[in-house]
Amino acid sequence: MRRNGTRTPHVLHPSGPLREPSNQLYLTPKRPCSFTPLSESFLSFLSFFLRMLTWLRELSDWIWQDRLWFPAGLGWANLKDRDGQVFAKGRDLWVIFPIAVCFLIIRQIFERTVAVQLASLLRVREKPRVRAAPNTTLESYFCNASKFPSQSSVEELTKQSACSVRQVQRWFRRRRNQERPSQIKKFREACWRFTFYLLAFIAGLGALIDKPWFYDMEEMWNGFPTLPLLPSQYWYYMIELGFYISLLFSVATDVKRKDFKEQIVHHVATILLISFSWLVNYIRAGTLIMLVHDASDYLLESAKMFNYAGWRKTCNYIFILFAAVFILTRLVILPFWIIHTTWVYPLTLYPPFFGFYFFNGLLFVLQCLHIFWAGLILRMAIKFLPGNVRIPKPNHYREVSWTEIEPSPEPYTMYVV
Asked: How far apart are CA 22 and CA 144, in angstroms?
């Protein structure tokens, strides 16, 4: 073949006849770009995740806007560190989680060493318990249905287990008694809490004894919200918060009490109250509230310790002292001094705002729990006064289940909640 007057040689194609070379560029067609279902799902998830982040950022900006948590004209900008003064910050609260873990570790060591030795010194002894005889039918009902069968259920179980009504009732009493925590376990737990509450009260009193707002509570609002953070306040807050967080972590393994639900509400409300007071710099009020709570708790735990050790009269005297301190601090000082200063006095300085209502709302939740507990405490304290003797029922000791009710071998019944 000739092209432009010259002869172009033929080229032998490996898969066919001779072909002439061409100046055209041949491109192999490519497959159209497509995504697999997995990649499409990932992109959808990523898009949703980014939208959620944007929404959460907008929600956070709305929640933490100045007008909700501070009086008019004040805000988060007033809490920036300056001139050598340090203020509370939200990121400081992350340290409470490692502190809570440290408390859990220290507690395990303390209960296995110090508390055990103290229990041996006070001669804490386990009471003998009669174990329920093995019975597959009754065990299945106990684990899957109820620990307290009704009368109709007892009659039905008598037919299935070939036992009499009295035998079934006795079996359930003994089986419930097996699940009660041991005296040593309860003593160790009370010993740990007594140690913390006592040290926390002493530390809190030492941190506040020289502060003007300890004597004149209106001083807690002097200069609000630009109240500089003191090192003693920082550690008092972090240790208290870490301890209450550790109590929530260990609630599944602690001794179950009659007021278990109220205790959970109390712990959650306390954590929210302390955390919120830290975020918006109500630190002076927060330290006073924590001190008021720590003032009576160690007395209750010490009364439990002596009760488990069998020191009944000592326990009774300490419990009466605890009742007096509890009523004084939580039904007199807290509502008529502290809550009055956080609810009434600020209205003379600033117009009300959402943070004002939120903080005092949490305080009212705690105060309602205090009134509930005060009723129980007064009923028990009255029984400990001279001349108030209560004769227990014959089956009293066998009827007690795994709640925190302590039967006394004395001729009266002794309760510690």
From this structure: 86
